[in-house]
Design a protein that fits this description.
With 263 residues, the protein is an alpha/beta fold. The chain has ten helices and nine strands. It has a six-stranded parallel sheet, sandwiched between helices. Strands 5-4-6 form a three-stranded antiparallel sheet. Helix 1 (2-14) packs across helix 10. The two termini are 26 Å apart.
């Protein structure tokens, strides 16, 4: 692993447009369960509860499930803190090496760790959005209304439109702005860090395929506990293990490489 980390650090130090694509695996070390692995959220909750059709049919049922999950502590995103992997990526951005994080996650942890250029491919569960006027408000304000006044179908304070978490539900399209920004970043990318994602969900899984198809192709570095579904197709360097540990070690090697190159 040391040789792989050294090699990646050398390439990162020379990269002009490094980009990170992150998935649920980067946040499991913050106590947030992923979705598809044994013990993940979909083993306990029917994924259909997070479909837009079912939400529209019975929004009160969804908001009750939301509050139950929060009360159980199993999926309380507001209580989670960024872990060393999030901080390492934020530090790479501050150093001018990492240009953007494209995340499939909805937990806001990249921003809390200090990352600025974040494309939220699937939205953000720490916000609620009005389905009528698109106004946003903190999810905790909506939760407070549900608890304090029994508002089982919370409405927008501006227009009385139906509120839903500002995340992409099954059956909804990826936000056009996120698609556009990820496409722009993919076209400029010369090194892609794929971290904590199984690459089973499209169109996000198309990103490493696209950067490998460019001429010249970008280098794809995968950091995962288990190889992704596309690792044989797109991955140049696979480092298996904890994203927090690997990215911490990568930061140490990267700083050493930059110091060495400057001396």
């Amino acid at each position: 692993m040391d040789d792989q980390i050294t090699r990646v650090a050398e390439r990162l130090a020379k990269a002009k447009n490094a980009v990170a694509l992150t998935g649920a695996g980067i946040s499991t070390e913050s106590g947030i369960p992923d979705f598809r692995s044994p013990g993940g959220l979909w083993t306990r909750v029917d994924p259909g509860e997070f479909s837009i059709d079912r939400f529209l049919q019975n929004p009160s049922r969804f908001w009750k499930l939301h509050m139950d999950l929060k009360a159980s502590g199993d999926f309380d995103l507001a209580a989670a803190d960024p872990n060393p992997a999030h901080y390492a990526l934020a530090r790479m951005e501050q150093m001018g090496i990492l240009k953007c994080v494209i995340t499939q996650n909805v937990d806001n942890l990249h921003q809390r760790a200090g990352s600025v250029e974040v494309v939220e491919f699937h939205g953000n569960l720490l916000r609620a959005s009005c389905m009528k006027c698109r106004d946003l408000e903190p999810i905790e304000d909506v939760e407070a209304r549900i608890c304090e006044v029994g508002d089982d179908i919370p409405r927008c304070r501006r227009c009385e439109g139906l509120l839903k978490p500002d995340a992409v539900f099954f059956g909804e399209p990826i936000p056009s702005k996120a698609l556009m920004m990820s496409d722009v970043q993919s076209q400029k990318c010369d090194l892609l860090l794929v971290i904590g994602t199984s690459l089973q969900v499209y169109p996000a899984a198309q990103i490493p395929i696209s950067v490998r198809a460019k001429r010249p192709p970008a280098l794809v570095v995968e950091i995962n506990r288990e190889p992704s579904a596309l690792h044989r197709q797109v991955t140049d360097i696979l480092i298996q293990g904890s994203s927090g540990e690997i990215l911490t070690r990568l930061m140490v090697a990267l700083e050493s490489e930059i110091q060495r190159a400057a001396s």
